[in-house]
Amino acid sequence: MRRSDNKYVDGNEDATVYHIAIKDIKPNPYQPRKTFDEESLVDLADSIKQHGILQPIVLRQTVKGYHIVVGERRYRAAQIAGLSELPAIVKQLTESEMMELAIIENLQREDLNAMEEAESYAKLMHDLNMTQQEVAKRLSKSRSYVANMLRLLNLPQPIAKMIREEKISGAHGRTLLAMKDVHKMKRLAKKVAQEKWSVRYLERYIADHKVNQKVETSSKRAQSKPQFIRKQERQLKEQYGTQVSISTRNQKGQITFEFTSEAEFKRLIRQLNNDQLF
């Protein structure tokens, strides 16, 4: 390690920049990012060859050398470029601080997809024992935003993979969660990707599907009733001017009158008080 004469502004303070041998630097064991685009690394390596490292990486010194806190992509590109040392700022950090900085740096990536973002929030909560509210406050997000992103972790793996590959968006994924049948959800996700559906179109499709499913279920339930029960339902509907349902089970039953407003409710009560059903 050799000290540079240069200073780098880190927050509100000047930080000393050291030149650290690349062989002494190790990747961050808490790095949530598992894959790095090789083509973009090569592009960055070409830029480094031409302009050098414009921003020092941040390291934490350990008994085994130096661990990267911030700047693993620059470290990998510098290796490709053939550099033997890197400009770095060495910070005194705890394990928890190192873990948190690695996750926060990952969240600041421009190419971060929705699944990676959701996994980073979950990792902060699990590894650092944070609540959703604490994660939201630390990252200047609303708690509802964090909660909505975390819902993506409930998606089946094939759909999560589609979001990672940017075939569908995170918003598509959250909308698909309204489908309770996993097999139908997977089929619909493929259709969304193939036909390039907008999120709004998907929302309308699912809403219509639920309505149709409800009508179909009601129709099947009605058809399964004995004929004399269906006849009584029709008569009561005509008599009281509203939808009436009669259900029976184990020699017990229930008559349900439907109303859609307070005025309709009061009208029904008056009629029921004045009339005798049977």
TrEMBL record:
Keywords: Chromosome partition, DNA-binding. Residues 18-107 form the ParB-like N-terminal domain. It comes from the Bacteria. SMART domains: ParB. SUPFAM superfamilies: KorB DNA-binding domain-like, ParB/Sulfiredoxin. Belongs to the ParB family. This is ParB/RepB/Spo0J family partition protein. The lineage of its organism: Bacteria, Bacillati, Bacillota, Bacilli, Bacillales.
